[in-house]
Amino acid sequence: SRIACCHKNMKDYEKAITYFEMAIGINHTNGENHYQKGLCYHRLEQKDKANESFNTALKLGYEQARGWIRK
């Protein structure tokens, strides 16, 4: 997920999502990867996908996601 974060920091959100998805494929219980993927979707204004990622992160115990969930 370091590579994913580098792409996110460079504002290459689509590539970052690809790498976060790879990391999630390896360890789907890492809430931070779901959260970071949600932030990328949020930046791309894909709110439904962002919420889905934030909800998953929250279910996995990643509390930082709570403030980003939109109803």
Q: Your description of this structure?
A:
This protein has helices at residues 2-9, 13-26, 31-43, 47-59. It has 71 residues and is an all-alpha fold. Helix 2 (13-26) runs antiparallel to helix 3.
Give the tags.
globular; 68% helix; 4 helices; 0% strand
Beta content: under 5%
Low-confidence stretches are none
- CA-to-CA gap between the ends? 28 Å
Discrete helix count: 4
How helical, in percent, are the residues?
55-70%
Average pLDDT, to the nearest integer?
A: 95
H-E order: HHHH
Largest sheet: none
Structural class, from secondary structure content? mainly alpha
What is the general shape?
A: globular
How many strands? 0
Radius of gyration computed on alpha carbons: 11 Å
Give the SSE layout.
Blueprint lengths: L1 H8 L3 H14 L4 H13 L3 H13 L12
Give a quick precis of the structure.
The protein is mainly alpha-helical and 71 residues long. 68% of the residues lie in helices and 0% in strands.
